[in-house]
UniProtKB/TrEMBL annotation, chain A:
It comes from Cirrhinus molitorella. It is found in: Cell membrane. CDD domains: FN3. This is Erythropoietin receptor. The keyword Glycoprotein applies. It is a single-pass type I membrane protein.
TrEMBL record, chain B:
This is Erythropoietin. GO terms for biological process: erythrocyte maturation; nucleate erythrocyte development. The keyword Disulfide bond applies. It comes from the Eukaryota. Belongs to the EPO/TPO family.
Length: 528, 183
């Protein structure tokens, strides 16, 4: 009977140990790392448990150990020693669980082995609480972006709910880097600042707050997963982007409006028209130049000549004056159509001009002069060569080198022209001759390029220079019907204003209608 | 007869109103954070006393209460017994700590001593608010409550902190007045 009782007690003890052993083993394993004390103690529930490691390789009989404890200078009390095998670390520990644990007093625990004291320790039991982990950990979606609601239940303790402190650990799934939040007393927490649409793992553990009770951190709970809600576009960012876009639009609008005139001029330039030079031509006479000329013949031209007489006359005038009277009138007549042709943009007079142009009376004379020049390049001083109004002057702007190059370039086609001169394409030659190269600005009419009076010597420059007088700048003025495209082409190139000073001819030319206006829209050729 | 009962009622009312020597009942202080505040200050005092080893070594015996709490045993006690044990213990502690004020101590220690004495008085007020009976010195025996003796100031303050954390706090958590409001 006694054996039966012992067996029953033994079985019960085994059952007790096995059920509570899981908790005990985990706690023992956790505290085993504490090397500060030989006897490691903790309070689980209301009872104090102290354990120690097996010192040496001995037979594992726990009978040889004796565990005693005492407090308040009372008589020592014994405790039953048990052994526990740790599977994880393959160690064996001996432990004793006090039947009645006195709190808030100094306990003295001692371990004897074979009547010899092995370890001794004095401690207050309320300072070594080792709680179970929190229960019922739940992670829910609060609905708000980047937030998770975490809640749990405290371990079952009496009168201790308001003196506990919790630690919540959370990390993204698959990541080992976690953050920790400490929370007192309260058993719920809202995690903030999480990534949207992400799976998170959450753990919780508990510890006494250290005021009335002290202890170790409990074990972490099993991880619970929660998914944050998917985030939509942050409204603040959308608003900011729209605002910035609006500001940029306003700024660009302001800039465009403030410079709209400039921009318009650049993008849609005005096509220059010579209407201001011919008052009433297009408005009153509907472009009929003949009638306009007949109406304003004397006054306009006289006026213009008078105006331009203020300017320095062109060598063309000089040439026409010097030339023989026989040619003067005819030249004058010829010059008119030339001027008219170049200045007018309508095609009505073109045919008339062309007719007249085709058979200029002095054309033959001109060719003879050129032939003479070709034969005698030295006779540059002969001003008769330069007396044709068809010859044009290249104005020297002071850049001799460039002019020389231009001169030589220009002379080449003309040379070939002269060699093949004759009946062939007189109009072409005429067009070549009719070109005029002008330079812009206040170019000084150098003595080299000027048409002088016969008493003036022409400084010899070279053979090429002889042709310069009749040279064209490579620009051929086509005196055939002036098409609009041609005019447009003219308009494309730079038209220099002729402000040049002619030192050689300080006096004015009283010629009327002979002054060839040099400027945009005059008979001058274009400058390439 | 009517006049007699009316007069009697009037007399009772007047006496009740002019109750001599008794203050109005206090609101019950059930929040344990009040006691926790005193306990934290007691921790500081104990740490300070342990730190001063040479200056605090006074060869004097102090009579201090027992601080041991067996939860099972304690929970089985009646509230009056618990109250008596707590009140007598506070009284004894107060006397022991007050005896230190006479001896010359450093300013730091003196501040801790003064704080402990005022905290014990405040705890008494808290107990009074919970309608816990006051300390009644038993006239029958010299020492009906078990006491212990300590020989150093550090031990004295250790007993002080343990007493507050243990018996006093346990009494407050299980005060009937506070429990009625909860349930």
């Amino acid at each position: 009977m006694r054996n039966d009782r012992l067996k029953i007690v033994f079985v019960l003890c085994l059952a007790f140990v096995s059920t509570g052993g899981q908790h005990l083993e985990s706690k023992v394993a956790q505290l085993l790392q504490d090397k500060a004390e030989d006897i490691k103690c903790f309070v689980e529930g209301k009872d104090l448990t102290c354990f120690w490691e097996e010192e040496e390789e001995r037979n594992n009989l726990h009978d040889q150990y004796t565990f005693t404890y005492s407090y308040e200078n009372k008589k020592k009390m014994a405790c039953v020693v048990s052994s526990l095998s740790l599977l994880a670390s393959n160690k064996t520990v001996f432990f004793c669980k006090l039947p009645k644990t006195p709190f808030f007093t100094t306990l003295v625990v001692q371990v004897y082995r074979d009547a010899q004291m092995l370890y001794s320790r004095s401690l207050n039991a309320e300072n070594f609480l080792f709680l179970d982990p929190p229960r019922n950990l739940t992670v829910t979606n609060s609905g708000k972006e980047g937030q998770l609601n975490v809640s749990w239940l405290p371990p079952p303790l009496k009168y201790m709910d308001d003196s506990l402190i919790y630690e919540v650990r959370y990390a993204m799934e698959g990541s080992n880097m976690g953050k920790v939040e400490v929370i007192k007393v309260s058993t719920m927490l809202v995690l903030l600042g999480l990534q949207s649409d992400t799976r998170y793992k959450v753990w919780v553990r508990v510890k006494p707050d250290g005021v009335a009770y002290k202890g170790y951190w409990s074990a972490w709970t099993e991880p619970v997963f929660g998914v944050t809600p998917p985030g939509d576009m942050d409204p603040l960012i959308v608003v900011l982007v729209l605002f910035i876009g609006l500001i940029l639009c306003l700024l660009s609008l302001t800039v465009i409006l403030s410079h709209h005139k400039f921009l318009l001029k650049k993008l849609w330039p005005d096509i220059p028209t010579p209407e201001h030079k011919f008052p009433g031509l297009f408005t009153v006479y509907k472009g009929d130049f003949k009638e306009w000329m007949s109406q304003n013949n004397g006054s306009i031209w006289g006026r213009s000549v008078h105006v331009y007489a203020e300017e320095l006359p062109s060598p063309l005038e000089v040439l026409s004056e010097v030339s023989l009277t026989g040619h003067a009138t005819s030249q004058r007549e010829e010059r008119k159509p030339v001027e008219e042709e170049e200045e007018k943009e309508s095609e009505r007079s073109d045919s008339r001009l062309t007719d007249r142009w085709r058979e200029p009376p002095h054309a033959h004379w001109l060719m003879e002069q050129l032939r003479a020049l070709q034969d005698n390049p030295e006779s540059l001083s002969q001003s008769s060569l330069l007396q044709s109004h068809d010859t044009y002057v290249t104005l020297n702007q002071g850049d001799n080198e460039r002019q020389d190059d231009d001169v030589f370039e220009e002379t080449v086609p003309l040379q070939t022209l002269f060699t093949t001169a004759g009946t062939s394409s007189l109009s072409t030659s005429r067009s070549d001759l009719g070109s005029l190269q002008q330079s812009s600005g206040s170019g000084r009419l150098s003595s080299q390029s000027s048409f002088e009076y016969p008493n003036h010597t022409w400084p010899p420059k070279g053979p090429g220079y002889a042709y310069m007088a009749v040279a064209d700048s490579g620009v051929s003025m086509d005196y055939s019907p002036m098409s609009s495209s041609r005019i447009a082409e003219l308009g494309k190139h730079r038209m220099y204003t002729n402000d040049y000073k002619n030192d050689i001819f300080p006096h004015k030319w009283p010629l009327s209608g002979q002054h060839i206006k040099s400027g945009s829209g005059s008979c001058t050729g274009t400058v390439w | 007869m009517f006049h007699g009962s009316g007069l009697f009622a009037l007399l009772l009312m007047v006496l009740e109103w002019t109750r001599p020597g008794l203050s109005s009942p206090l609101r019950p202080i059930c929040d344990l954070r009040v006691l926790d505040h005193f306990i934290k200050e007691a921790w500081d005092a104990e740490a300070a006393m342990i730190a001063c080893k040479d200056a605090c070594s006074i060869a004097t015996n102090f009579t201090v209460p027992l601080t041991t709490v067996d939860f099972d045993v304690w929970d089985a006690m009646k509230i009056e017994e618990q109250a008596q044990e707590v009140q007598s213990g506070l009284h004894v502690l107060n006397e022991a700590i007050s005896s230190l004020q006479i001896s010359n101590q450093t300013d730091v220690l003196q501040s801790h001593i003064d704080a402990s004495i005022s905290n014990i008085a405040s705890i008494r007020q808290v107990l009074r608010s919970l309608s816990i009976p006051e300390y009644v010195p038993s006239s029958s025996d010299g020492e009906d409550m078990e006491m212990q003796k300590v020989s150093s100031i550090s031990e004295l303050f250790q007993v002080h902190i343990n007493f507050l954390r243990g018996k006093v706090r346990r009494l407050l958590t299980s005060a009937p007045v506070c429990r009625q409001g909860v349930s």
